[in-house]
Amino acid sequence: MVTTYERQITPSPATDDTITATHINSEIDYIIAALNDFDASNCKKSGTSIPLGNITGLTSTQMAAAFFLTEEDMASNSATAVSSQRAIKAHQDAVVGSSYRLVDVNGTPTKVYTKYLTGTLDADTETIIAHGVTSGLTKILSLSGAFGTGTNFEVQDYSQGAFSGPQWFLLFDGANVIVTGVGANVQGQAYRIKIDYEL
Known about the structure:
- Helix content is 20%, strand content 28%.
- The protein is an alpha+beta fold.
- The chain has 3 domains: 1-38, no CATH class; 49-95, no CATH class; 101-197, Immunoglobulin-like, CATH 2.60.40.
- The strands form 3 sheets. A 5-stranded antiparallel beta sheet has the order 3-4-10-6-7. A 3-stranded antiparallel beta sheet has the order 5-9-8, with no helix packed on it.
- It is rod-shaped.
């Protein structure tokens, strides 16, 4: 409580029952001085460390715990708490490269992820490439490949029988992508394989 500026307006002279403009101006000066010197940060609810105007009834430490979270994984999924820039950045950095799109799969909105495999085919008719998709046989939704033939990449369906152009077809199982039926002019060339999958 500010006591320095406590003051009572009294008539002067004492026998005069009129408060003059001079007295009023003097009191206004005191009020202005008191307001200029007022420190709102020290204005607390009596007997507590809770600032006046804080309708939560919580201390600043309690408020921080209840309304300000620094979870980098956003695990609590709070509908009321706010997050720090650091937590938001860490969360964003963690999901870069793992973003998904919602796709209708058999009538169900599904999070579909995409990954790419690159490398060089073996100098053989078959190359086995680990795809890294857990339970890939049931989780991989689509698979496509492009294979380098000299100065470009070609995407082509496998052609059974006599065919002079590039030949291959793609298979996958729970752990690998298999490029097989590879023609001689494609063997040893670079590959780019795209996989769409769900977790």
